[in-house]
């Protein structure tokens, strides 16, 4: 299977909360469309420093991450990223990669949005078993 990319929208979720509280105009919400590499081998959403600056996302911690070449580095983690793909959305944290590194869409936001990688078409798709809404498995709930 080759590389799979997806067009996603990233939004400052803190701004959205300010709009809900009538403290900010909707047109002032910081948002950006990006092409991301769909990387099921990565856990988190990974953005770059340029996106973090544009969205003005707050840094909440530093976390170590292992790169594809095996090297371990420490990265900032930001919170309050609303991620949209087609009719799906999730709010998540993101690791901030240096410079203009490629955006990586990892397994946790993929699972939360209930989207799948279609291997034949090499694209990200909404789960065809639940095309109108995301559905989660809740194991152990009776």
Strand and helix layout:
Blueprint: E1 5-12, H1 13-20, E2 31-38, E3 45-48, H2 49-55, E4 59-66, E5 72-85, E6 88-97, E7 103-105, H3 107-113, E8 115-118, E9 123-126
Parallel strand pairs: 2-7, 3-6
Antiparallel strand pairs: 1-2, 1-5, 4-5, 5-6, 8-9
Explain briefly what this protein structure is.
This protein is α+β, with helices and mostly antiparallel strands and 142 residues long.
Question: How would you sum up this structure, described in words?
Answer:
With about 140 residues, the protein is α+β, with helices and mostly antiparallel strands. It has one domain (about 5-125): Beta Barrel (Cathepsin D, subunit A, domain 1), CATH 2.40.70.10. The chain has helices at about 15-20, 50-55, 105-115, and strands at about 5-10, 30-40, 45-50, 60-65, 70-85, 90-95, 105, 115-120, 125. A hairpin with a 4-residue loop joins strand 8 and strand 9. It is globular and about 45 Å long. The model has no long low-confidence stretch (mean pLDDT about 95).
The Rg value, from CA coordinates, equals 16 Å
Q: Tell me the fraction of residues in β-strands, as a range.
A: 35-45%
CATH topology-level name = Cathepsin D, subunit A, domain 1
SSE succession: EHEEHEEEEHEE
The CATH architecture name reads: Beta Barrel
Largest sheet: 7 strands, mixed
N/C terminus separation: 38 Å
Number of helical regions: 3
Tell me roughly what share of residues is in helical segments.
Answer: 10-25%
- Domain module count: 1
Identify the overall geometry: globular
User: For the record, what is the CATH homologous superfamily label?
Assistant: Acid Proteases
- Helix and strand composition category: alpha+beta
Count of distinct strands: 9
């Amino acid at each position: 299977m080759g590389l799979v990319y997806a067009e996603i929208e990233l939004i400052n979720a803190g701004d959205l909360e300010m709009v809900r509280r009538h403290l900010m105009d909707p047109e002032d919400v910081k948002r950006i469309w990006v092409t991301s590499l769909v990387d099921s081998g990565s856990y988190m959403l990974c953005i770059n420093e340029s996106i973090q600056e544009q969205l003005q996302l707050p840094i909440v911690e530093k976390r170590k991450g292992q790169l594809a070449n095996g090297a371990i580095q420490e990265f900032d983690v930001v919170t309050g990223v609303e991620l949209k793909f087609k009719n799906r959305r999730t709010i998540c944290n993101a690791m901030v990669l240096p410079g203009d590194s490629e955006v990586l869409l990892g397994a946790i936001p993929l699972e939360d949005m209930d989207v799948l990688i279609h291997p034949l078409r090499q694209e990200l798709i909404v789960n065809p078993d639940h095309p109108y809404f995301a559905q989660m498995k809740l194991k152990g709930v009776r």
